[in-house]
Amino acid sequence: MAGFRSLARQVRDPRCDLALRRYSLRKCLERFAPYGHRATWDHLCSRAGFGPEDRSPDPVRLVAALDELEEARAVWLAYEVEFAERRKKEKHDGLRRPGSVDDWHRLTWGGFGVAWCDDPAVHPREPLAEVLRRLIAALEREPGSGCPVCGGEQLVWRYDLDHEPSSGPVCTDCGILVPRPVLTPESLAYARRARLLVSA
User: Can you tell which superkingdom this protein's organism belongs to (predicted)?
Assistant: First the structure.
């Protein structure tokens, strides 16, 4: 099975058939897809300027989509290295029980679904790398009351998400499943109440 870097080389290789180059970009999303596969694909297509169903997109646009994905992946991999070093130091210092950020991180190892968007057509508009930087910054500071990506204050608790965890606070502005560790207990309670009001 090809890894992310070999798939990326195929996307960039002008000697490869255009269909293979597009297919290779899609396969990259099996290795790294911050919003989930379908939402990340929709995001990359809209930012690069080709349709999700376009079978022969402009190769320049295909490479632009890959560039954005690679930049975001570099941001996430750097975070994972820092995370692993921090956990190693904590274990050395006798802190064996992981915290809530660690529990969340275990579910997103490798970067799949870091900022899960259950609706593939609703996702942040900013570049992926910027979204991940904002999310990482939120994970490294005290919990807040809104979405760490777009600053939206309207969070609604959703169930039956196509992801793990299968329920949680979703930002109604940008569509991400907001990681619980970045929110205060009051914000989580408010999101649960908002869900009850919406379903009533």
Answer: Bacteria
Domain parsing of the chain, residue ranges: 4-194
Alpha-carbon distance of 133 to 136, in angstroms, equals 5
Lookup: tokens for 194: 């908002």
Give the E-state strand segments of the chain in sequence order: 155-158, 168-171
Q: Which residue has tokens 């990482």?
A: 136
Furthest-apart CA atoms within the chain: distance in Å: 57
pTM: 0.90
Which two three-digit tokens encode residue 43? 């995001």
3-state secondary structure of 39: helix
Helices (H) and strands (E) in the chain, counts: 7, 2
Interatomic CA distance for residues 50 and 21, integer angstroms = 14
Which of 72-81, 175-184, 187-196 bottoms out in mean pLDDT, i.e. has the lowest?
187-196
Is residue 131 a contact partner of residue 74, using CB atoms and an 8 Å limit?
no
Residue 132 CB burial class (10 angstroms; 0-12, 13-18, ≥19): buried
- Which residues neighbour 28 within 8 Å (Cβ) at sequence distance 6 or greater? 4, 7, 8, 11, 66, 69
d(CA 195, CA 200): 9
Q: How far apart are CA 67 and CA 48, in angstroms?
A: 10
Share of the chain above pLDDT 90, in %: 74
51-76 average pLDDT score: 96
